[in-house]
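Note to self: user wants both folds in one dump. Writing first protein now.
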Amino acid sequence: IVTVNCARLLKADHHATNGVVHVIDKVIATTTNSIQQIIETEDSLETLRTAVAASDLSSLLESEGQYTLLAPTNEAFEKIPRETLNRILGDPEALRDLLNHHILKSAMCAEAIIAGLTMETLEGATLDVGCSGEELTLNGKPIIANKDVLATNGVVHFVNELLIPDSAKTVFELAQESEVSKSTDLFRQAGLSSHLT
């Protein structure tokens, strides 16, 4: 699937006497803002703006290149426990891993994302893309709230749920989500959960 500034190419290579015509399905708007400038001007990305500034990722997101940012909205940050959020925000390495997990190495418009695709993030992990009816899903969840916001150095999709990589989780959080969750309950009952966090 070929896209031009996220407009889908419908028909290609119509040759004319003075050139060639490609038919697309949208009017292409002027794009002047970098991904970083979109983060700085969008009210719903206020928490992300703070996190990016704290992680020194601003220079990457305003640099030349072609990236996809899965931008967590304020709502996405509000969904995770305050204690977990404060821990990540206070840990530069975990915060950087978290944000890099929301950045893809290439610009991927929604039209060009095919269900069943595995996409690699800057953090090094992968995200599985699928679909639920008309909606795209990430790791099985239809969390893309707004798609195809174009930037001079890529594209931004707003997501209303935070994608937390394993590298940004504590041992306790990882264990709770795995086959050893009963063991973590025993650690907690024994008053030893602090060792896992």
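First done. Writing the second protein, which came from a different request thread.
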Amino acid sequence: QEEKKQLTLKVEELERKLESTSAQNIEFLQVIAKREESIHQCQLRLEEKSRECSSLARQLEMAIEDAKRQVEQARERALSRERTAQSKMLDLETQLSRNKTELNQLHRSKEDAERRYESCLQDLRDRLEQSESTNRSMQNYVQFLKSSYDNVF
């Protein structure tokens, strides 16, 4: 009986342990189920974030391509403007050179005209002086003739 009693106590103790262990197992199963649910939710969020990251990566790539295209267009426009400006600058330099040449020619023509004018003016002065001299000589001769005629008559 004593042995039976001890065995009964052991059985009861083992049953309590079994109940305790079963309760712990249930708690562990619940914790595991919660963790699995949490893991499942995290995986869903991870997949959603991965899709979002992929979408953002595609958008970023498109934005980068668009920016590259815009930079290339801006660079082409700038090069075009630079070529146009260089062409205009060459045209202006050519025009300036022509204008300088024309100005130099005009200066030379002016100087030539001034020299010819001065030469003609000097010739006219010389002729005027000669004419005046001749005129004075003639006046003197006329005066002489008048005197002579007065004396004769």
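Dump finished. Worth passing along: The CA atoms of residues 37 and 108 lie 103 Å apart.
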